[in-house]
Amino acid sequence: MEPLVQRIDILRRTFDEACRGIADIKVLQDLRNKFLSRKRGYLAQLLEELKSLPVSERPEAGGRINVLKDYIQSRLDEAERTLAATTTASPRIDLSLPGRTRLWGAPHPLMLVTQEIEAIFLSMGFAIEEGPEIETDYYNFEALNFPPHHPARDDWDTLYTTDNLLLRTHTSPVQIRVMERRKPPIRIICPGRVFRHETPDATHLPMFYQVEGLVVDEGITFANLKGTLEYFLKTFFGEKVKIRFRPSFFPFTEPSAEVDIECLVCGGGDAQCRVCGGTGWKEILGAGMVDPQVFKNVNIDPERYAGWAFGLGVERVAMISHQLPEIKSFYENDLRFIRQFMIK
Ligand code: DAH
User: Fold this and answer.
1) For residues 343 and 322, is the Cβ–Cβ distance under 8 A?
2) Minimum CA distance residue for ligand 1 atom 8
3) What is the best residue among 170, 229, 291 to mutate for testing ligand 1's pocket, by most ligand atoms within 8 Å of CB?
């Protein structure tokens, strides 16, 4: 048995020596195989040699081999744990890899245009108001002088959630909410999202933005409406821009007008222009003198007060101002598009 005991000691020293060189998991794996592999490992060989010992000596020798086996196993396990801990704690850094790109966002062009519009009206003493996007039939239609079944409702392709609740089709209901709360003089604008059951095309989407405006005071006239809107449009689009007022109809204003701006996309020169349809003009807002019936609905005396209002399409203004032929570019969330508008 003596030679076998010696071999066991030698093997233990050899193993201890080899352990110092464990630099990575591969070396560790090799060691495990070399010593513990069931078929060809050093320990398997020793166990094989047991057979050559007299039966009486086998238990003791076998016991010694097992002690060594447990020892090797536990040291290797420990080495593996240490290795795992240090690799996660200090990952290797490959300085030759390209850096991670950060995708910076940017203010959305529709936000920027809305802010520009707000700034012009704020400078004229207007205040900003907001209202809910889900409205009752009363605020969206009835209080604005659309009786139930009135054909004018057909111009607004309404998305109803229940019989009485709908996604507002315009920002005009905010006029009613504000006039219910406040007494004149009133000078407000109301930016916000509106919804219509529309088939998308180059200039229409089922959701878009409007800015509503309302002025109520004693002695307000149509000249006041025209002057204020002209001042706004010239400040926004530049002094030279061509503007046209066309007579129109809205149930909540009398008289009513629609305001067009020359098509800055084609300049009137493209019969196929996707923005103006070849007319050279693009409608960007509706406006008019507040109908006396609307004042009565909110308990404002139409004999004493007069007012005017407008509702403007933000996407249209943005498309004309940035000469964009497709409304959908605003909603594709392409950062390359959105970032172009940061500096004007
Ligand atoms: N609410 C109208 C629309 O969405 C636009 C409008 C027209 C608003 C005339 C007004 C107005 O305040 O006076 O088409």
Assistant:
1) no
2) 311
3) 170
Binned at pLDDT 50, 70 and 90, residue 91 comes out as low
Residue 329 contacts residue 293 (beta carbons within 8 Å): no
Distance 310 CA to ligand 1 centre (A): 5
Which atom of ligand 1 has the smallest separation from the CA of 169? 4
Residue 259: other Cβ atoms inside 10 A = 22
Q: Are residue 210 and residue 259 in the same domain, yes or no?
A: yes
Nearest CA to ligand 1 atom 12: 310
State which ligand 1 atom lies nearest to the alpha carbon of 194: 4
Which of residues 54, 89, 124 is at a domain's end? 89
250 pLDDT exceeds 70?
Answer: yes
What's the structural domain count of the chain?
2
Residues with CB under 6 A from ligand 1: 170, 172, 212, 250, 253, 256, 286-288, 309-311
Domain that holds residue 241: 109-341
**pLDDT (average), residues 236-241:** 93
What is the reported pTM? 0.71
Ligand 1 centroid distance, CA of 322 (Å): 24
Mean pLDDT across 94-123: 91
Mean pLDDT estimate for the chain:
90
- The enclosing domain of 174 has a CATH number of 3.30.930.10
Within-domain flag for 85: yes
82 with 125, same domain? no
Residue nearest to atom 3 of ligand 1 (CA): 170
Q: How far is the CA of 234 from the CAs of 117, 212, 241, 261, in angstroms?
A: 12, 18, 6, 10
Using a 10 angstrom Cβ sphere, with 0-12 exposed, 13-18 middle and 19 or more buried, the burial of residue 217 is middle
Q: Where are the alpha helices (DSSP H) in the chain?
A: 2-19, 25-36, 42-50, 58-89, 109-123, 137-140, 173-181, 222-237, 292-297, 314-322, 335-338
Q: What is the pLDDT of residues 209-238, one digit of tens each?
A: 999 999 999 999 999 999 999 999 999 999
Q: With respect to residue 95, please indicate whether it lies within any of the assigned structural domains.
A: no
> How many whole angstroms separate alpha carbon 91 and alpha carbon 86?
8
